[in-house]
Amino acid sequence: MGERSGQVSARSVLALALPALGVLAAEPLYVLVDTAVVGHLGAVPLAALAVGGVVLTQVSTQLTFLSYGTTSRAARLHGAGRRAEAVAEGVQATWLAVLVGVVLALVGQLAAGPVAGLLAGRGEVADAAVEWLRVGLFGTPFILVTMAGNGWMRGVQETARPLRYVLAGNALSAVLCPLLVHVWGWGLVGSAVANVTAQVISAGFFVRALVVERVSLRPEPARIWAQLGLGRDLVLRSLAFQACFVSAASVAARTSAAAAGAHQVVLQLWTFLALVLDSLAIAAQSLVGAALGGGDDRGARGVAWRVTKYGLVFGVALGVVFAALAGPLPRLFTPDAAVLAEIPHAWWFFVALQPVAGVVFALDGVLLGAGDAAFLRNATIGSAVVGFLPVVWLALALGWGLTGIWIGLAAFMVLRLAAVLARARSGRWAVVGAVRG
């Protein structure tokens, strides 16, 4: 790592975090371009894109273990000086991505109609969404290959190359999308084709990167099975997140249109800042995994607390910035007076939670780097069941509105904070070795 691991500098963390942030932000930025292009086709295609996009996003959201789990395993091997084996984790994750991706793409062809109907009801929006999905789902294996590629490259502390690969695919697709949709007259299907094109290009770069490493490209069932074990914990954790945010959206929608609109505005800002803070977690994951793989548990603990301090400072800074923007920023999203009147009920929770989020995300990265996914699974599910979900649905029953929803989110974050701080202080996560036993 170029420094004693316990004395990791802010520059070292940023060198890993900033390119990782670029990768995390690339997809949402491309979605904005895609939305703007399709939006000129009219309301029905735009609504269909929203439905199809939600379905495809769920695929990648639930399978993040292909990136985060692979980073954890590869980082330990890299820290032990076994780069070829670290890259081999990427090979096996890529095989797993292909196998799972092909199955999902094929099953998706059968499920596209029922799923679109469930989300949008019967009618032209659902029909158009199915049309988009039937093409877009062919990109699923390539999406997952890219996730696996990001995982092993983060593990060997290379975050600049993944950024170039992802930007190359998305940049070409951003040019291709308006041509296909409007100039060549393919309409909504053109959007799906442009999406798949981006995914194929990015995945191609990651596969090429594996080939030039000159490691064995044969599948190894034992390693794939081990990755699936870690993946199970991360999938269950992800499902807990989804249950929380779907419940919050449902309660907001049942409260009032203004509350739902205000929740959407603040939640999108929360999601954006989560990407920013998650880049710090990725750096922590890579550095901690490498330290433990090298047998340096003391250094790993040092990295953990140093990165946690960075997360706290970063979170406080974000809180101050968005407190200052409380007046003008919401008006950039909507001129609706009723929505603007509701936003403060969520806004000050959003601001106050940034320092908490900075610490929680940093320690999430630390524990993921240590391979402590089972603890994170239990902590997240427990915080959701004890904190978020009861408060959110109680808010609906008692008419607490948007304030109640964000009290639930605050409870969720504070419980997670208590859990990860206690785990970090215990030191039980700092298990040394190239592979966590």
Automatic annotation (TrEMBL):
Keyword list, A-Z: Cell membrane, Membrane, Transmembrane, Transmembrane helix, Transport
Any single Pfam family the record assigns to this protein? MatE
What's the chief localization of this chain? Answer: membrane
* Record-linked InterPro entries: DinF-like, MATE_fam, MdtK-like
Q: What Gene Ontology terms describe where this protein resides (cellular component)?
A: plasma membrane
**A GO MF term:** antiporter activity
| Domain of life where this protein originates | Bacteria
Q: Where in the cell is it found?
A: Cell membrane
Regions that span the bilayer: 41-69, 90-112, 132-153, 165-186, 272-295, 307-326, 346-367, 379-398, 404-422
- What membrane topology does this protein have? Multi-pass membrane protein
**Can you tell me which family this protein belongs to?**
Belongs to the multi antimicrobial extrusion (MATE) (TC 2.A.66.1) family.
What NCBIfam families does the record point to? matE
The protein, known as: Putative efflux protein, MATE family
Organism listed in the record: Streptoalloteichus hindustanus
